[in-house]
Amino acid sequence: MTRLPFEILTMPTPNTSSSLPRSKPSHRARFVLILLGIALLALGVIGVIERMHARHVLTEDTDRNAVPTVSTLTAQPAPTDQSLILPGTVKSWQDAQIYARTTGYVNKWYVDIGTKVKQGQPLAELDTPDVDNELKQGQAQMRSDQANENLAKVTSDRYQKLVGQGLVAVQTADQFAAQLNADVATVEADRANVAKLQNMEQFKHIVAPFDGVITQRNLDVGALVDAGSTGSNLFVIADTSKLRVFVDVPESSASGVHIGMPADVTLSSYGAKPFSGTVARTSDALDSSTRTLRTEIDVDNTGQTLVPGVYANVKLALATAAHNFIVPANTLLFRSEGLRIALVDAQQRVHLQTVTLGRDFGNTVEVTEGLEANAHIIINPADSLYEGEQVNIAKRDK
Predict the structure, then answer these.
(1) Residue 98: partners with Cβ closer than 8 Å, 6 or more residues away
(2) Distance CA 41, CA 47 (A)
(3) The pairing of beta strand 392-393 with beta strand 69-70
(4) How many CA atoms lie within 13 A of 172 on its CB side?
(5) Alpha helices, H only, 203-306
(6) How far apart are CA 314 and CA 297, in angstroms?
(7) pLDDT for 264-292, tens place per residue?
(8) How far apart are CA 392 and CA 68, in angstroms?
(9) At what angle do helices 129-165 and 170-202 cross, to 10 degrees?
């Protein structure tokens, strides 16, 4: 047998029964596996919880966005005394435009503007030649008619005696008696005419009708003036011992004005210090075109400090009803069914309340009917709000 150059060594096949036993997993490996399983389970649970939370948050946000959020305030009661400032017209206590009551020429004038005069004091004198001549003619005519009257009386008396003696007819005596009556009537007419002409002549003396100050003079010496008010006035006289200040009170405040209540009158040209006045009278009726009450305030001006015609502000302290409230103007809702204010009840539901307004103060208004104390009012309500709508309150009432 030929030998190979090398020998193939054959390793004996190990007996499986005689091999080493397999190693079993250790306790540490099992613990790691358990922890890994728990971690995976926890991650799964956490993922589910996060998804559920996100879904819940999304639901809450959706519900929250579906309910409007509003801001509210509490209605404030109106003050019991509310000041009302109105523009006023200052006028003299009384004034008069003086016209000529007779026709003539200006002979003299005695006073000029700014002159303080007394009642009955001469202001001017007119030359009235026409009236003087008419007066003389009237007096002469009256004397003539009086002579005729005397003659008629003597004649009538004589014939009455003759009738008693039966010497003349009664008809003749009656005729002379009638003539006497006619002459008497003529004399009476002459006397009235003379009195009229005497008055016309007296009107050539222009006098002051009351105590006051001359504010206008519209005549010069030699100027022709006509009787009556068809031409220009001769003088204007004003009594400024007291002044009348007229204001027009709006309808909403007219009920608070009463006679005797005090008033402060401020005149811009006399500084900031007010002058005290008193409501003297009202028109007791509203002007149908302006819906205002004409009111007169009397101011004492004994010292002649003030002059009529200046611009004035009048401050009236008006009493306000206790149930009135003051609310901002941005709480009002103007609906087709009328003026409303949106309220929030205890269940945070909207109630559209009908209200009646009083005075308007610009940024705020007075509510006279429809509100109660501690009512929660929505600020800047949306036009889409409806009765019974659920809302959220954004912040606490002020």
Answers:
(1) 123, 206, 209, 233, 234, 235, 236, 237
(2) 10
(3) parallel
(4) 13
(5) 251-254
(6) 9
(7) 999 877 777 889 999 999 999 999 999 99
(8) 6
(9) 160
Q: How far is it, in rounded angstroms, from Cα 202 to Cα 190?
A: 18
For residue 96, what are the contacts with CB-CB under 8 A and spacing of at least 6? Answer: 209, 210, 236, 237
Closest CA to 305 of 262, 278, 273, 263: 273
Q: Is the pLDDT of residue 3 over 80?
A: no
Sign of CA dihedral 387, 390, 395, 398: positive
pLDDT of residue 207: 94
User: What is the helix (H) or strand (E) element at residue 197, kind and residue range?
Assistant: helix 170-202
pLDDT at 230: 67
Q: Report, as an integer, the average pLDDT of 148-174.
A: 86
What confidence tens digit (pLDDT) does each residue in 204-243 have?
999 999 999 999 999 999 999 888 766 789 999 999 999 9
Task: Pull the structure tokens for residue 355.
Answer: 């209200």
* Nearest residue to 102 (alpha-carbon basis) of 69, 76, 124, 70: 124
Q: Which tokens belong to 262?
A: 């005090």
Contact in structure between 196 and 55 (CB atoms under 8 Å): no
Going across the sheet that includes 76-77, the strands are: 76-77, 325-328, 364-369, 356-360
CATH tag for 69-78+323-393 (out of 2.40.420.20, 3.30.420.40, 3.90.980.10, 3.30.1390.10): 2.40.420.20
- Residue ranges per domain, the chain? 69-78+323-393, 97-217
Element (H, E) at 39: helix 27-66
State the pLDDT at residue 336. Answer: 82
The answer for residues whose C-beta is within 8 angstroms of residue 42's C-beta and 6 or more apart is none
Provide the residue type at 119 as one letter. Q
Q: How far apart are CA 394 and CA 70, in angstroms?
A: 6
- How many CB atoms are located within 10 Å of the residue 327 CB? 23
Distance CA 243, CA 254 (A): 22
Element (H, E) at 135: helix 129-165
Longest dimension (CA), the chain: 236
